[in-house]
Specification:
6-stranded parallel beta sheet; 14 strands; elongated
Length: 348
């Protein structure tokens, strides 16, 4: 007899985020998504009707907020376990959630590492709190029982206002409402890599490159000197596309050759940087040109190759470059191709 699967209700008012979380959970053999809700009142009705084993609950819901919903769950479905997944990082809010019967509290910006471990812990009746809040939440003896996460890189996403980069290889994406915020976001990414000591490759259109270089100068970084030393490299994204496409489709071997040509030190290169970061908009340009399938294929190929070589990649998608006709389909697919996702609300 097949093992019983935990029945899950997902509650979040952002359609793209909720759809992707549902898609992720449906791929887990031990879970079965039995319903979705987009606001507090709908959540209450679904909880009454479905009596789910697990409720993945957002905090900032229209109408009744997540804390109000959590308080009612005790009477509506006392056997349901609750995992709150929210952007709110405040320790006092997390503590209030636990007082109202929530077993797990995950900050969305940490969800890439923590969502699936949190679900596993909560279903086992254990408390779980995001690493960001450890030490300020659950100060009683139960804190030691809270499960700690292992990294889950595949098909998990995060959401926040700005990228969080570290020295581990990551393939991240951020959504931007317009060109100005895109330039500002890529500037932060490039600056972070340069100050960390990376060689940074910026694959952005000419107008975007100009804005990024201007911003770097304003931040006190001599972009000219960095380019002379090979620390800052500006390949043209259209030329990059021409290099990696075969018969109108991204080719894995061509992508590999392109990456190796970039990161292998050229003769005379000082090779003073110890790590490599890519920031840009190559796949997004394919999407803007109407080739959604090519963009997704390129994201997946690049993910495998760049991470295998320990290179960070940060992709930027501008809202106007995502077709309205299939936005609800393409945004989750973009998210699925990355280990971490930021600014998801900008794509809605």
């Amino acid at each position: 007899m097949a093992a019983k699967r935990a029945r899950v209700l997902v509650v979040d008012d952002h359609d793209d985020w909720r759809n992707f979380v549902c898609s992720l959970l449906k791929r887990q053999t031990g879970l079965r998504v039995v319903g979705e809700a987009a606001d507090g009142s709908e959540a209450i009705q679904k909880i009454k009707d479905l009596q789910p084993d697990l409720i993945v609950l957002d905090l900032g819901l229209p109408g009744l907020n997540g804390l109000e919903v959590a308080l009612q769950i005790r009477e509506l479905s006392p056997r349901s376990k609750v995992l709150m997944v929210t952007q709110m990082r405040a320790a006092d809010v997390a503590e209030e959630a636990f007082r109202r019967g929530v077993l797990g509290y995950v900050v969305k910006s940490e969800a890439a590492d923590e969502l699936l471990p949190a679900i596993e812990a909560v279903l086992q009746g254990k408390q779980f709190v995001s690493q960001h809040l450890v030490g300020s939440v659950l100060k009683d003896s139960r804190k030691g029982e809270a499960a700690r996460p292992d990294r889950h890189d595949e098909n998990v996403i995060t959401e926040s206002g700005s990228p969080k980069l570290d020295t581990k290889a990551r393939h991240e994406v951020e959504f931007y409402p317009d060109d100005a915020t895109f330039v500002a976001g890529l500037t932060r990414c490039v600056e972070s890599g340069l100050r960390r000591g990376d060689t940074v490759f910026v694959l952005a259109t000419e107008s975007h490159r100009a804005g990024i270089l201007q911003n770097l100068q304003a931040q006190g970084l001599d972009s000219g000197a960095l380019m002379d030393r090979g620390r800052l490299v500006l390949p043209d994204p259209y030329e990059a596309l021409a290099e990696v496409m075969v018969d109108g489709k991204p080719d894995a071997e061509r992508c590999y050759q392109f990456l190796r040509a970039l990161i292998d030190p050229a003769p005379g290169n000082s090779a003073e940087a110890n790590h490599v970061s890519f920031c840009g908009q190559v796949a997004p340009l394919l999407l803007r040109q109407g080739d959604a399938e090519g963009a997704m294929e390129l994201e997946h190929i690049w993910d495998q190759i760049s991470l295998a070589h320990g290179a960070n990649t940060f992709c930027g998608y501008i809202s106007s470059g995502i077709p309205d006709t299939n936005r609800g389909e393409i945004v989750p697919r973009i998210c699925a191709a990355h280990s971490h996702v930021y600014g998801l609300e900008s794509s809605i």
